[in-house]
UniProtKB/TrEMBL annotation:
Lineage of producing organism: Bacteria, Bacillati, Bacillota, Clostridia, Eubacteriales
Name of the featured protein: Porphobilinogen deaminase
Keyword Transmembrane applies: no
Annotated function: Tetrapolymerization of the monopyrrole PBG into the hydroxymethylbilane pre-uroporphyrinogen in several discrete steps.
Encoding gene (name): hemC
Other remarks on this protein: The porphobilinogen subunits are added to the dipyrromethane group.
Amino acid sequence: MKTIKLGSRDSKLAVIQAEMVRAAVPVPCELVTMKTTGDMILDRTLDQIGGKGLFVKELDRALAAGEVDFTVHSLKDMPMEQPDGLPIVAYSKRADVRDALVLQAGLQELDLSKPIGCASARRRIQLKRLFPEADIQPVRGNVQTRLRKLDEGQYGALVLAAAGLHRLGLEGRIHRYFSPDEILPAAGQAIVAVQGREGSDLSCLSAFADAEARDCALAERSFTRTLDGGCSSPVAAYAKLENDHLILHGMYVSEDESIVRFGQCEGDRSQAVALGIQLAQQLKQAR
């Protein structure tokens, strides 16, 4: 029986997510980890160095070259356009979609004399609505690096994805959760994606792939793509299903960030991509 090679970033969270895939695949799997450009450049924000596509470039190269059979990613870290011949082939069941507030170890109250650290313009803009008096500053690095910077006193709090904290066993660090009404998540947040080569046999992924997460992700990514929003752009989208009825929420931000609009649309799940386009155009063209 052929051993399948799974490509992953070498961070602890990325490896845990790749192990989720390996556990669901009924054939032998070998994990191949690598450091990406996005992992190595930590002194600048993502929009200054080319966006989160830098987290997948090396993995895409290995996949295209046949060095690995599939690659595993946090869907929210993936560019909205996939390279030719390297489609997303499976989506995990969605975990907790919310963002979470994390305080310095041992503290029980938010200290606004120090900045709140977050890694995206999406969070920064929405945090300013919740905490107008707060200083919101960028923070880079993997989850453990960010927590170290917090506990050293560089920040008064962090905002991180709850799903990642749970997967790392760090849910005890969460001070409070933000509902999607408070902070709308990134497109694809809390979903693990598997990328493959066009024409590959996908039967081994059937136990991992989740159709509900797929349809929600298609709507969210369609919305973001229509607004030309890369992974580091201040765009947010969150879809949920009620039976076969899909409800999509989105946030549009103008280029100079002077306009922030929220809206929603809904329809049959089979129209997920069209609903994303519809809501994006509706918010962009609103007066």
